[in-house]
Amino acid sequence: MALTAARPAAETAMAPADGLGPAGAGESGPLLQVRDLVTEFKTRDGWLTAVNHVSYELHRGRVLGILGESGSGKSAMLRTILGLQPKSTRISGEVILRGRDLIAMTPREREDVRGSWVSMVFQDPMTALDPVFTVEQQLVETIRRHSTLSKAAAAERALELLEMVQIPSPERRLKAYPFELSGGMRQRVVIAMALVSNPSLLLADEPTTALDVTVQARVLELFRDLKTKMGMGIIFVTHDLAVAADIADDIAVMYAGRIVEYGRLEDIVRNPQHPYTKGLLEANIRPGQTERPEAIPGAPPNLAKLPPGCAFAPRCSKVEATCWESLPTLDSIGLSHGVRCFVATREIQNAMPVAAKGA
Ligand SMILES: Nc1ncnc2c1ncn2[C@@H]1O[C@H](COP(=O)(O)OP(=O)(O)O)[C@@H](O)[C@H]1O
Ligand SMILES: [Mg+2]
Fold first, then answer.
1. In terms of DSSP bridges, do strands 63-67 and 90-97 run parallel, antiparallel, or are they unpaired?
2. Does some domain include residue 80?
3. Is 345 among the domain residues?
4. Burial call 343-359: b when 16+ CB within 10 Å, e when fewer
5. How many domains does the chain have?
6. pTM confidence score
7. What is the pLDDT of residue 29?
8. Atom 2 of ligand 1: nearest residue by CA position
């Protein structure tokens, strides 16, 4: 299905709040650079490290899939980027979006960024919608908060946005209350809301997890469309490898707050190197298979009491003495492929021709 292009007229009316400058003009390099990001929460057990020295880059028109089990720090990472963590949270590192460090910004500046350059779509569409207002009322309100459009022009823009997210009979849907819509429709409305400011970065936190499989496939198709037609950069968080494989160009696998492997989709799916990534792939249903194979045995560690070595060691079939003692670094093992595992790195080095070793 084709995506209706945003009208250029609306774009000028949607200019970002003061100080942030015009969208996209003359910028080169990555859209987003996350550098050494650490997020720690104060808990009864002491400081809990939810995001542990995470670094990556995202370019315009690409989808970065963040893949990991529940509790691996995916949501904490997105919320940190958006500046939505409680005041007591300890945060360090850099989140450079279009040349500006969001971590170093004042709360006011960050709020402006949230209303213009970045939007987020959460797992449960009902949390983002108000049950007592119609879709039109909510969209118009959001549009007017972000622009100087009149009520009538905002209503027109609301209709355009519903068309953009491919909602059938959009005029009728505008008059509906959230409870009158199906789960898939509601998530499309939430995505429309996220598009109001024409963001350059879209953060999606398991946005299809609550949907059934066929609806999920269609919403994923919509995300792909947004990426190509609007050139947005998207970070798409999921615990589901099949979803990541369907939507992502690049994947970062997160375990216990750290990236343990990253690469292009092909690298991760066809040539996984970390025992955890391999485990995720093996636990995935393949075509023709009816029963889900066994998931990786064991559970992730307590993030407030991380071991000194590899956090995956207690669950790893390849564990060695060193793995318990020291933390492996995230080593580059290809042009765009990296892994944090002593065993995998050694095996790759051993497999290399002698002349290339140590180069
Ligand atoms: N505000 C908070 N205060 C304390 N701990 C938190 C807070 N938010 C998240 N956590 C903890 O951080 C860890 C990572 O959580 P989360 O980012 O939600 O994981 P995921 O999204 O990958 O399932 C979990 O141990 C969770 O309990
Ligand atoms: Mg989460």
1. unpaired
2. yes
3. no
4. bbbeebeeeeeeeeeee
5. 1
6. 0.89
7. 86
8. 41
